[in-house]
């Protein structure tokens, strides 16, 4: 049985922990602690400080090992550690955040080398709370940077949405 490592990253509150919990067939291992800085505490009670971990077995017997990075910049030292040996990256962006396109730019920049060596897909969450920026604005941003990655509006609590992101990532790995 082969194993595939996939990393979920993205802005704080975008749904990384929720996405992993939605599809994991084991209880998610997390490193959530009470949020102590004011900005984080205003948005959520707990925050990930090292990683989330879950597993999913595919129909062909392959095991997906699902890792979630901390969303806060101050824990960015974990990002490279968690991507070591991963086959791909799922970037989640909170559309209701203060600067979602800026957040996407930050993650694309920080993971540029990894994305160049593997690939990534992008999920835009919380579009039900804020429909601006539009999905078209994200596509324009990517196009202006010369980046061609799949991008989907998703609900991180929906198994179908998370599976769609994984399927898109696998397709990118297979077909480039």
Automatic annotation (TrEMBL):
<dbReference type="GO" id="GO:0016787">
    <property type="term" value="F:hydrolase activity"/>
</dbReference>
<protein>
    <submittedName>
        <fullName>Putative GTPase</fullName>
    </submittedName>
</protein>
<dbReference type="GO" id="GO:0005525">
    <property type="term" value="F:GTP binding"/>
</dbReference>
<dbReference type="Pfam" id="PF03029">
    <property type="entry name" value="ATP_bind_1"/>
</dbReference>
<dbReference type="InterPro" id="IPR004130">
    <property type="entry name" value="Gpn"/>
</dbReference>
<dbReference type="InterPro" id="IPR052705">
    <property type="entry name" value="Gliding_Motility_GTPase"/>
</dbReference>
<keyword id="KW-0378">Hydrolase</keyword>
<dbReference type="InterPro" id="IPR027417">
    <property type="entry name" value="P-loop_NTPase"/>
</dbReference>
<keyword id="KW-0342">GTP-binding</keyword>
<comment type="similarity">
    <text>Belongs to the GPN-loop GTPase family.</text>
</comment>
<keyword id="KW-0547">Nucleotide-binding</keyword>
